[in-house]
Amino acid sequence: MAARGRSRARLPREPTTVPAGARDGGGRHARALPRSLAESLSFRRGGRDRTRRAATRDRAHARALGRRRRDLRDGPVTPARRSEKLRAADTIVTCTDYNRRHLIEAYGTPAEKLRVVYHGLDLERFQRRARPANATPVILSVGRLVEQKGYEDLLYVCADLVRRGQAFTCAIIGDGPLRGRLERLVDELDLRGVVRLPGRLVGDGVLDWYTRADVFALFCIEASDGDRDGIPNTMIEAMAMELPVVSTRYSGVPELVVDGTTGLLAECGDRRALADALARLLARPELRATMGRAGRERVMRDFATAACIANLECIFRVDSHRDGAAA
Predict the structure, then answer these.
(1) Looking at the structure, do residues 241 and 310 belong to the same domain, yes or no?
(2) Gyration radius of the chain over CA positions
(3) Which of 69, 172, 268, 321 has its CA 20 to 30 Å from the CA of residue 310?
(4) Contact 218, 150 (CB under 8 A)
(5) What domain range includes position 315?
(6) What is the DSSP string of 125-165?
């Protein structure tokens, strides 16, 4: 995210591009912005390349800067130039505390410049519906079929659960470059009839699966090219729908999932521990319900769109007022 000001006493009037991520996080922020701030900023969806272009242009009046963690490590900008831009910014907004620590450790960014504003979620849309009493528990995962989502680990864990005699079905909602590879692995592990890959769904199609599911699983890892998730938006959605989460202690995930309270966490690649965690939840519906309620409360407290936008607006206003006082 980048913002630049024309007046040191007021919020910026000049439209500034604020790129969104791969999903609709930026769009949700744009729709929820108060009029006073929305009039000062323009939003566009753009993905990684546009994010890089917007964040690496020379901005003589740059007042705030925020980027995905991966984009801080690659792209056409040299580390020296990137460090220069971070030093020039008065305020740097990032979406996880994991990113904040990275900026301090890797770039020597002063902690007082950094602010964390989580991705907000529309809690009116994502709220628990009447959940059917499944004769067979349903494990759900939602995300792009890419390496950092850990779907190969999920399939091997499903095969382990089958060997243990655990009854369940698993649905992986999404599409991407690994689809063919995952379909072949489903066949190799003899998981036909247990694991489904319905493809990409949107809107009510995804909400219906959140409603039908009993547990949400997403085993985040670092991809071979260094790509990684921060806090996956679908994980926030699942918790808002009162689903307990099984995931990994990686990147920003522990900032959302409180191990033992809103879900269960294991180390990346520890398939046995991940299988144990899923087996525990699949066998205990009362634990699923307790963790699910705690998960919704967690999202309501720190990930509601209104609160996140209020935090962002406050950052812009404080920065603007500080500039005005210095003028």
Answers:
(1) no
(2) 21
(3) 69
(4) yes
(5) 2-120+304-326
(6) TS---PPP--SS-EEEEES-SSGGG-HHHHHHHHHHHHHTT
Pairing assessment for the beta strands 138-142 and 215-218 based on DSSP bridges: parallel
Helix (H) or strand (E) holding 101: helix 97-107
pLDDT greater than 50 at residue 1 = no
| Residue 166 phi, psi dihedral angles, 5° rounding | -75, 130
Q: What are phi and psi of 73, to 5 degrees?
A: -105, -15
Q: Do 111 and 168 share a domain, yes or no?
A: no
Residues 106 and 225 in one domain: no
CA distance 75 to 48: 10
Convert the pLDDT of each residue in 254-310 to its tens digit: 999 999 999 999 999 999 999 999 999 999 999 999 999 999 999 999 999 999 999
Condensed to tens digits (0 to 9), the pLDDT of residues 58-83 reads 333 334 444 444 455 555 678 888 88
Same domain, yes or no, for 258 and 143?
Answer: yes
Give me the mean pLDDT over the 187-205 stretch.
97
